[in-house]
Amino acid sequence: MKLPHGKIPVEILRDIVFRNLGVKRKEVILGPSVGFDGAVLDIGDKSLIVSIDPITGAVERIGWLAVNINANDVATFGVKPEFLFSCILLPEGADRETVETICAQMDKAARELEIAIAGGHCEVTPGIKNPIVVGCIMGLTEKGNYVTAGGAKPGDKLILTKSAGIEGTAILASDRESQLRKAVDSSTLKRAKEFFKKISVVKEAILAFKTGGVHAMHDPTEGGVAGGIHEMTDASNLGVKV
């Protein structure tokens, strides 16, 4: 069976991935699960929220996206993202300027969100055409002081911040600009590129959690809004009317 592009099918996750998870440890409160944005580890009187995601479909702002996409996942727990670890994989032929561009983007994004880049790895690896950046972001909170994508309750209202298609629109406008110019005017492309400014949900996610009354949050990326809704309702064992 050849796997499609994108996320691994749920049945593969359940039949293979989730059955090969090493030893069980009591500190792992939330481990690998369908529809959740990260893991939860209880360490003493603190809960550590951890999320990891690769950036594979973008070129222009790959470093910036590696920080923001992963930060969003931690923020949807209602927890401030604080520490970043990254793995930068470069194609053969990459130069010093490529490394500098990616790292400068990551530094800028991390400073904007007050995140410390605490470690990582960087190498040139054969077999890839474009750079790949894998980000792992962590955030600390008081023990149990968070929400998950699986915490929705009957009667909850479903709210989407900003709008749909933001990340994909911004990436296409930047990475496929030359092709799009054949059918899309320059002012529209310029506005589409500005969508990068809307990708972060850290501020609204943290604010929503602090305001109270929020039982679940989720950051839909691959699969879009519809996929994100299904992941959230499946994780909460509920249905939804949109």
Explain what you see:
This protein is an alpha+beta fold. About 35% of the residues lie in helices and about 20% in strands. The chain has one domain: PurM-like, N-terminal domain (60s Ribosomal Protein L30, Chain: A, 2-Layer Sandwich). It has a six-stranded mixed sheet, with helices on one face. Strand 4, helix 3 (about 95-110) and strand 5 form a beta-alpha-beta unit. Helix 2 (about 60-75) packs parallel to helix 3, helix 2 runs parallel beside helix 7 and helix 4 crosses helix 6 (about 185-195). The model has no long low-confidence stretch (mean pLDDT about 95).
Keywords:
242 residues; alpha+beta; 60s Ribosomal Protein L30, Chain: A; 6-stranded mixed β-sheet; 8 helices; 6 strands; 34% helix; globular
Q: Any chance you could write out the topology, listing elements then pairs?
A:
Layout (H helix, E strand, L loop, with lengths): L9 H6 L12 E3 L8 E5 L2 E10 L6 H14 L7 E8 L5 H17 L3 E9 L7 E11 L23 H10 L1 H4 L5 H8 L8 H10 L12 H13 L6
Helix pairs in contact: 2-3, 2-7, 4-6
Structure summary:
This protein is α+β, with helices and mostly antiparallel strands. It has eight helices and six strands, in the order αβββαβαββααααα.
Give the overall pLDDT as a whole number.
Answer: 93
Radius of gyration: 19 Å
List segments where confidence is low: pLDDT < 50 over at least 5 consecutive residues: none
The helix/strand order is HEEEHEHEEHHHHH
- Our estimate of the beta-strand percent is 15-25%
Describe the sheet with the most strands. Answer: 6 strands, mixed
CATH architecture: 2-Layer Sandwich
Number of strands: 6
Strand order of the largest sheet: 1-2-3-6-4-5
Annotated CATH topology: 60s Ribosomal Protein L30, Chain: A
> How many helical elements?
8
Structural domain count:
1
How far apart are the first and last residues' alpha carbons, in Å? 34 Å
Fourth CATH level, the homologous superfamily: PurM-like, N-terminal domain
Structural class: alpha+beta
User: Helix content range of the residues, please?
Assistant: 25-40%
- How would you describe the shape? globular
User: What is the level 1 CATH name?
Assistant: Alpha Beta
